[in-house]
């Protein structure tokens, strides 16, 4: 593509830069060039973006604006639209950076696990033997509705339309819980601690009440497939919130905002990894958990998923360096 021949102030002053960027694009140097070529291309790209803005403001000839618009679009695609590079970066982020960040935050993970599981176990045991106790945690109408929902057999499964509809609900609900567990960590970690305890207690109350009503096998068979993904993701989100709170409390001689900025990579890796796990959990909960598949198969698959989650978090990323 050639620069429009009609002279203008911008084209006369900037024509050389435009041609230089054009040549880099034609030679494919913005994707596979040296560091200096890519850096030079990025500088030219920013300059051409400003040139396009000025050309539009000054109502320059349409051919000039069209040329610059095409140049900006091609450069943008060269920098950001390489699907292979994007997917490789995401793969590294999820399969390497995420488990490494979880392991580095082992103290946060231990505390988050305790804050979630201890209330869950306590309320489950108490609610299984006392409906009054469960009613102190949640409205009795809600508990009775849950008990009724799991009273029937799961052997009939659920229609595909209902599965698709419930998938959206599960994503919304699960991500909302995890987000609160993480984002409330901005309150120096206290918010994350509260939501971990609260969600653990509520989960235990529901399972305990349904178990006390005689449908414990049904509800446990239903949740066994997605629980390893969903509950682990909630714990990881809480751990990320606790790490955020720790960065605010112990800034190690720098400003609190700077301390959070330094910890942003590990925190973001945990949050994004947990989000992926929640999406997978929602898919399992919507399509696998309510299916008519034999309970023995569901429990076997639950064991496979649990071991996979543990193995991934313990050993993922050990043979590869974290992405920068």
What is the compact description of this entry?
The protein has 2 domains: 9-81, no CATH class; 87-315, no CATH class. It has helices at 9-26, 29-32, 35-57, 62-80, 83-104, 106-129, 131-137, 140-149, 160-183, 190-223, 227-249, 256-262, 264-288, 295-315.
Structure in words:
- This protein is mostly helical.
- The protein has two domains: 9-81, no CATH class; 87-315, no CATH class.
- Helices cover 81% and strands 0% of the residues.
- The chain has helices spanning 9-26, 29-32, 35-57, 62-80, 83-104, 106-129, 131-137, 140-149, 160-183, 190-223, 227-249, 256-262, 264-288, 295-315.
- Helix 10 packs antiparallel against helix 11 (227-249).
- The protein starts with 8 loop residues before the first helix and ends in a 9-residue tail after the last helix.
- The model is unreliable at 320-324 (pLDDT under 50).
- The share of residues in helices is over 70%
Order of helices and strands: HHHHHHHHHHHHHH
Number of contiguous helices = 14
Regions with little confidence, pLDDT below 50 for 5+ residues: 320-324
Give the biggest sheet: none
Number of separate structural domains: 2
**Rg on CA atoms, Å:** 27 Å
Which of globular, elongated, flat, extended, rod-shaped describes the shape? elongated
Distance, first to last CA: 36 Å
**Class by SSE composition:** mainly alpha
Strand content: under 5%
Report the average pLDDT across residues.
Answer: 85
**DSSP, total strands:** 0
How is the topology of this model organized?
Elements: H1 9-26, H2 29-32, H3 35-57, H4 62-80, H5 83-104, H6 106-129, H7 131-137, H8 140-149, H9 160-183, H10 190-223, H11 227-249, H12 256-262, H13 264-288, H14 295-315
Helix pairs in contact: 1-3, 1-4, 3-4, 5-13, 5-14, 6-7, 6-10, 6-11, 7-10, 8-10, 9-10, 9-11, 9-13, 10-11, 11-12, 11-13, 11-14
């Amino acid at each position: 593509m050639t620069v429009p021949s009609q002279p203008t102030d911008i084209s006369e002053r900037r024509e050389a830069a435009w041609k230089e960027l054009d040549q880099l694009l034609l030679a494919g140097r913005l994707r596979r060039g040296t560091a200096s070529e890519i850096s030079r291309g990025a500088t030219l790209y920013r300059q051409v973006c400003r040139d396009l803005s000025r050309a539009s403001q000054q109502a320059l000839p349409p051919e000039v604006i069209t040329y610059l618009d095409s140049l900006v679009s091609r450069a943008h695609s060269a920098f950001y639209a390489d699907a292979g590079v994007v997917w490789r970066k995401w793969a590294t982020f999820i399969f390497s950076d995420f488990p490494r960040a979880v392991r580095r935050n082992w103290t946060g993970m231990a505390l988050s696990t305790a804050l979630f599981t201890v209330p869950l176990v306590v309320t489950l045991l108490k609610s299984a033997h006392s409906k009054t106790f469960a009613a102190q945690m949640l409205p009795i109408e809600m508990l009775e509705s849950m008990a009724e929902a799991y009273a029937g057999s799961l052997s009939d499964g659920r229609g595909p339309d209902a599965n698709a509809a419930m998938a959206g609900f599960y994503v919304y609900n699960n991500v909302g819980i995890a987000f609160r567990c993480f984002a409330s960590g901005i309150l120096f970690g206290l918010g994350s601690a509260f939501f971990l305890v609260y969600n653990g207690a509520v989960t235990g109350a529901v399972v305990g009440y349904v178990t006390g009503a005689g449908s414990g096998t049904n509800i446990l068979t239903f949740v066994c497939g997605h629980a390893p993904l969903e509950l682990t993701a909630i714990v990881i989100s809480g751990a990320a919130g606790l790490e955020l709170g720790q960065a605010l409390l112990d800034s190690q001689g720098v400003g609190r905002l700077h301390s959070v900025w330094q910890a942003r990579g590990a925190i973001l890796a945990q949050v994004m990894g947990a989000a992926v796990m929640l999406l997978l959990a929602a898919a399992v909960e919507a399509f696998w958990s309510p299916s008519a598949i034999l309970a023995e198969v569901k429990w076997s698959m639950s064991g496979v998923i649990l071991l996979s989650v543990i193995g991934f978090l313990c050993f993922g990323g050990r043979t590869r360096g974290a992405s920068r």
